[in-house]
Amino acid sequence: MRLRNVVNSGFSVLLLLGISNVNAQAIKDLTTSKNANKTAARPTTTSVQTPRITSNLKKHSVGLGLGQTFLMGDFDKHGENEISWDILYNYSASHSFELMAGFHSSKYTFKDSFVRTTGLTTSIKGKLYQFDSFAPFALGGLGFYSPKVRRVVNNQILESESKLVFGVNLGAGVDLRLNENFTVGMLAQYHNPFDVKQELGPEVEGSYTKLLITTLYTF
User: How many C-beta neighbours within 10 Å does residue 219 have?
Assistant: First the structure.
């Protein structure tokens, strides 16, 4: 009798364990099925298309520089520092280097004397680094100059002969690009025309520096 009770008890335990395993497997299958359905029903996210940034390479820019000219050397003896202007052209050849050309012609007077500076310059402009739309740069190049002075020679006021000579220019500045079409900045540029020999009187020699506010239109 006791043996029969033990067998019945063991059979009951095995039956309960079997039922428990079946229920656990059913719950697991149901949970897996629900997760799969949720995953399948979840909409896939599409990548957001960022607006394309227009390249600033191979672009032409024209503009104007306006500021102060500081006469140096012998030029300082015959003229007074005044406001002057430059016509500017810029071509963006690469991300780091650009071509800048400029033209200027201004007259600076002092008493009975004057200095006229005329120049057509070309420079290679290299960006030191670029942070967002702000870019400091350095430049240097060559140009054609035609300086002219009126001065006292042998107690007489004489004007020098106008001759075209070569010269060098060096400078530095910053550019701030406002949008795709407009750029503003500052430019300090040193000009040194080669000496101009004269038939009467000493050579015409001197240099000058321009400190300009620049505005460029890109197309």
Answer: 8
For 135-150, the pLDDT digits (tens) are 999 999 999 999 999 9
- pTM tops 0.85, yes or no: no
What distance in Å separates the CA atoms of residue 144 and residue 83, rounded to the nearest whole number?
21
Contacts of 209 by beta carbon, 8 Å cutoff, 6+ apart: 69, 70, 72, 188, 189, 190, 191
Q: Which amino acid is at 96?
A: S
In degrees to the nearest 10, what's the CA dihedral of 21, 25, 26, 32? 160
Tell me how long the chain is: 219
Question: Which residues, 6+ apart, have CB-to-CB distance to 171 below 8 Å?
Answer: 123, 138, 139, 140, 187, 188, 189, 190
Q: 53 phi and psi, to 5 degrees?
A: -85, 125
Q: What is the rounded CA–CA span in Å between residue 200 and residue 205?
A: 14
How buried is 191 (Cβ within 10 angstroms: 0-12 exposed, 13-18 middle, 19+ buried)?
A: buried
Average pLDDT over the chain reads: 83
